[in-house]
Amino acid sequence: MSRILCVDDEPAILRLLAVVLAADGHEAVAAANGRDAIALAGRGGIDAVLLDLGLPDRDGLELIAALRKVSPAPILIVSARGEVAEKVAALDLGAADYITKPFDGDEVRARLRAALRQSQTARTPDGELRHGSIRMLPDRHEAEVSGRQLSLTPKEYAVLQALVEAAGRVLTHAALLERVWGKAHRGDVEYLRVAVRALRLKIESDPSRPEMIRNEPGIGYRLA
User: Fold this and answer.
1) Residue ranges of the chain whose pLDDT lies below 50
2) Phi, psi (5° rounding) for residue 143?
3) Do 158 and 114 lie in a common domain?
4) How many other β-carbons are positioned within 10 Å of the β-carbon of residue 68?
């Protein structure tokens, strides 16, 4: 069972989230404002945070940075503020995912499972990265899927490595572009699309229906 900090100023939403989380055996810890959220997160024992952006005492985007200072728990935004720019800002500030209200309980549980699974991406003492069927040895520039060796360009390898290291989280276009191509290319989304298309051809069983590298339209990519 995981303890999930739910931050929302609407009591009805907090009650609904408690029911949704209980279906997967999680315990909901409620906070109605940013002050209480920081205090609860700072005590430890929190495995993830579900955060509304419209809080009475401070803006939710500011709260992401404050929570990051007191807890390593993944932060999932659950908010009615669904503009793409708002989502990108939250993700770039360190949120793991973004769910728009009104939400579906099954979606919340699925997104939360993905965020909690990030700990399953393990780096061994010799530097090996593993996530699901993907195995990478960055020092040797080696990668395989289900035991099948992959032939990747340096850029394709760097994109896949970034996605594996953040498995379960959404990485924005800008974040991926800056990491792989440098700050000067934060806006060159076509570079990234080309690399992702090539990766899907090499790692997906059906590249036309990708199950591993998921697209978040207008925002970025995640590794399932």
Assistant:
1) none
2) -150, 150
3) no
4) 16
Q: What is the pLDDT of residue 219?
A: 93
Q: Quote the CA–CA distance of 73 and 4 in Å, as a whole number.
A: 9
pLDDT of residue 128: 87
Q: List Cα–Cα distances, 89 to 94, 144, 172, 174, 197, in angstroms.
A: 9, 33, 9, 11, 25
Q: What angle do CA 132, 89, 179 make, to 5 degrees?
A: 55
User: How many secondary structure helices (H) and strands (E) does the chain include?
Assistant: 8, 13
Crossing angle (nearest 10°) for helices 173-181 and 189-203? 90
The domain that holds 180 is classified in CATH as 1.10.10.10
Q: Where in the sequence is the domain holding 82, given as residue range(s)?
A: 3-118
**Residue 153 C-beta-side C-alpha neighbours within 13 Å:** 10
